[in-house]
Design goal:
mainly alpha; about 70 residues; flat; about 0% strand
Length: about 70
């Protein structure tokens, strides 16, 4: 569990701040696009998979209380 916390801290330390992200390639949606429901029916494709993880990592995931997570 400590390794996971170290990994997360390292990722956050090396990540870019909001000001450093180039948003030119992803323009904001206009009010017209938002009112027309631009993303209203978009759903990401989901695929069921099986993953084997250590019991301490499973305990951590379950402790997060994610809705619908299988206990």
């Amino acid at each position: 569990m400590k390794n996971l916390e170290k990994y997360i801290a390292e990722c956050e330390k090396n990540g870019k701040s909001y000001d450093e992200i180039n948003l030119a390639a992803s323009p904001e949606l206009t009010d017209l696009e938002l009112s027309a429901g631009y993303f209203k029916y978009w759903r990401p494709v989901k695929k069921p998979i099986t993953v084997r993880i250590d019991s301490d990592n499973l305990s951590w995931l379950q402790s997060r209380g994610i809705k619908g997570y299988q206990l």
